[in-house]
Input
Amino acid sequence: MLKDLPANPRVLDIGCGPGMQTIEVAEQSSGLIEALDGRQPFLDQLKLNVKKFG
Output
């Protein structure tokens, strides 16, 4: 589903949860991604996933 992304998209991921889809988009492009969630534990997990997947 992410086949036609521009080379450097700007992505806003609202309700990102632990960010698995955020990581997927990051792997598919070199754009700017802003991920938001109202629950701090999800954001903490996203930070760990970003470090894990680089």
